[in-house]
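Priority: medium. Attachment 1 of 2:
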């Protein structure tokens, strides 16, 4: 097998190891197996996220008929076979009416819980968009417009969630407020750098560290004041003035019987990558699991390290597997089709043009990358030349954020379909 194909095969093997390690079903089953079920009169299961269906399946396998009722909002196609818990498909990353209807049902279930009941909340990446319950009088379309504005200007997940929590009736600890005084156990599959409880899924059962002021600062940072729908702007300004109660903070009585537990993270997935790379004969080197920033800049940094390894065998000798995790952002400047992982691979390909023996791999652990059917893409030092032979100028495709349409004809897309998990992105640079 040619070395280039070997590198591609190894990269996919390493990525699959990450997906196995981030399997939410095993983590949820382990977390629920030790629950003292006889303490509770009724058990309810609610939640949202791209992996929430798989998490709900695990909850059913442990709790069975003890589940009184439940409802989960998941992304279209991210399904599991459930018997007792309702499964509601809805839109991501821009919420839709199906998501609102499901969130309203989840809020009703939480509100029905009494002091001797247990509410299990299953949250994974994507929950912020999949749990939309706009605070009155904001409409879904107005919240959709706000989300699109924030995504288009490259707002980070922390910034996006700070705004969404303050336009919501359920996020930022407000689901715990609805469920009180019941016991609440939230099991979280983290897709956020650093695993902050109040940011994962916009923290529906966690004390919220952000305020109306935080949300308004984000709006001002990206100069969106005049672009926001009037009702959204009015709501945020009313909150600033104290006319609307803020989200519950640490010490609020609604959290006295609430526990939030992280059961899966990017760090666990990256550790599995390192172990698999070592088994394949590479020297694994984890750069970081907390990488954020503009995708093109992050790609340039990774490519620079790879070039240094090739030129001087620093910081380590090949065969080497550089690994990083986290979640970058793309500032959209064109009208192309792609996602942050495909854009990373394309930007790295340009930076590594002509460099032999290096494979770049970047993919989302949820199996999706932007509004495309791919999880990510692979590239090497010959990618730019191969694209040019097909009359696909790589620099022009990058300029218009059109990475998907470049990698598709090259056959270098990474396509997994929904994986049932979501712990941010995995980036690999294999250097032979």
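Attachment 2 of 2:
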């Amino acid at each position: 097998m040619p070395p280039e194909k070997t590198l591609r095969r190894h990269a996919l093997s390493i990525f699959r190891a990450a997906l196995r390690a981030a399997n939410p079903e095993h983590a949820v089953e382990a977390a629920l197996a030790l629950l003292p079920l006889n303490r509770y009169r009724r058990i309810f299961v609610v939640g949202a996220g791209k992996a929430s269906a798989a998490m709900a399946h695990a909850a059913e396998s442990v709790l069975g008929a003890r589940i009184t009722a439940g409802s989960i909002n998941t992304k279209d196609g991210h399904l599991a076979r459930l018997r007792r818990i309702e499964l509601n498909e809805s839109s991501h990353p821009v919420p839709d009416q199906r998501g609102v209807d499901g969130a309203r049902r989840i809020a009703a279930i939480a509100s029905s819980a009494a002091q001797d009941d247990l509410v299990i909340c299953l949250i994974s990446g994507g929950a912020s968009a999949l749990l939309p319950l706009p605070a009155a009088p904001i409409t879904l379309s107005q919240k959709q417009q706000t989300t699109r504005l924030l995504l288009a200007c490259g707002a980070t997940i922390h910034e996006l969630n700070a705004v969404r929590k303050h336009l919501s009736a359920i996020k930022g600890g407000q689901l715990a407020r609805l469920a009180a005084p019941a016991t609440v156990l939230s099991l979280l599959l983290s897709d956020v750098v650093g695993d902050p409880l109040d940011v994962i899924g916009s923290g529906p059962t966690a004390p919220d560290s952000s305020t109306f002021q935080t949300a308004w600062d984000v709006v001002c940072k990206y100069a969106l004041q005049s672009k926001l729908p009037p009702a959204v702007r009015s709501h945020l300004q009313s909150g600033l003035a104290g006319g609307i109660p803020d989200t519950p903070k640490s010490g609020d009585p609604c959290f006295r019987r609430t526990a939030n537990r992280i059961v899966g993270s990017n760090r666990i997935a990256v550790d599995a990558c390192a172990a698999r790379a070592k088994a394949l004969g590479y020297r694994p080197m984890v750069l970081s699991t907390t990488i954020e920033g503009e995708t093109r800049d992050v790609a340039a940094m990774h490519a620079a390290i790879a070039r240094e390894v090739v030129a001087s065998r620093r910081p380590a000798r090949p065969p080497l597997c550089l690994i990083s995790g986290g979640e970058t952002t793309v500032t959209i400047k064109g009208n192309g089709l792609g996602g942050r992982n495909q854009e990373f691979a394309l930007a790295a390909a340009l930076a590594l043009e002509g460099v032999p023996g290096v494979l770049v791999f970047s993919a989302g652990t949820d199996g999706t990358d932007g509004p495309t059917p791919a999880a990510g893409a692979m590239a090497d030092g010959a990618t730019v030349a191969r694209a040019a032979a097909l009359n696909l100028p790589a620099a022009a495709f990058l300029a218009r954020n059109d990475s998907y349409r470049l990698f598709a004809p090259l056959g270098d897309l990474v396509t997994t379909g929904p994986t049932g998990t979501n712990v941010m992105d995995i980036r690999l640079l294999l250097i032979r």
